[in-house]
Amino acid sequence: MIFLYILLTLTSFLLIGLVLLHKGRGGGLSDMFGGGMSSGLGGSSVAERNLDRITIGAGIIWFTCIVAIGLLLRAS
User: Fold this and answer.
1) How far is CA 70 from the centre of its chain?
2) How much is the pTM?
3) For a Cys staple, 30 with which of 7, 24, 25, 26, CB 3.0–4.6 Å?
């Protein structure tokens, strides 16, 4: 159980960092403060695609930890 809490904490911080590394797509608050000078969305680089994959993988691990902790708490 302690392992799941540690893994949940680590993946939470990892997800925060990964989401902050993503490039803004526009249409949100970043446009309001001058961040709307971005190029087209079609030109994704390899680094951006890998960042997307890592973020999705970390999100799946985070979600699995949440479900596992919930099931363990309900069983006890």
Assistant:
1) 21
2) 0.74
3) 24
